[in-house]
Design a protein that fits this description.
mainly alpha
Length: 155
């Protein structure tokens, strides 16, 4: 395709989505300057691009990429690496947790581990008792208090 505002040819892929129930149509238009790139590869590259965008969003919103204030190269490198490490680790943990809690999202996962930490620290403050109780059950129930997607806690 040759656009009137660009002096070079563009590789264009137009995806038409038709809702089979309502009949509504929507369009997605993808562009590339690589004229030899097939439509399947172009769609794959856009998918990867959006996954990278989602990873940046998670690093900023959930794992502190937006919050560090240093301008020194090593500290910036450390903060960026730690944020993206946490993005990767959280997705691995989320996949594992979703086998037991299918509706769990990243905020639920973060809440779960924060709740576990709070419950564990709270139990340490209790006076010693000779009556046995199931601390894991208490920790899991407290950990689930802040979840966005409520679920039944299995102990």
């Amino acid at each position: 395709m040759l656009h009137q505002l660009f002096a070079q040819m563009l590789n264009v892929v137009i995806i038409v989505h038709i809702d089979l129930i309502t009949g509504k149509r929507s369009h997605v238009v993808l562009f590339s300057s690589d004229l030899d790139l097939g439509y399947e590869k172009l769609v794959d590259y856009y998918r990867l691009r959006f996954q990278i965008e989602f990873n940046f969003r998670d690093a900023k919103q959930l794992w502190g990429l937006e919050d560090f204030m240093s301008t020194e190269q090593q500290q910036v490198t450390n903060a960026v690496n730690l944020s993206f490490f946490m993005v990767t680790l959280s997705h691995v943990l989320l996949r594992e947790m979703q086998t037991e809690y299918p509706d769990m999202g990243l905020l639920d996962l973060k809440s779960f581990f924060l709740g576990r930490r709070y419950a564990s620290e709270t139990l340490k403050l209790l006076p010693e008792s000779h009556t046995p109780f199931n601390s894991e059950s208490i920790i899991r129930k407290v950990a689930a208090l802040g979840w966005i997607h409520p679920c039944v806690i299995h102990v």
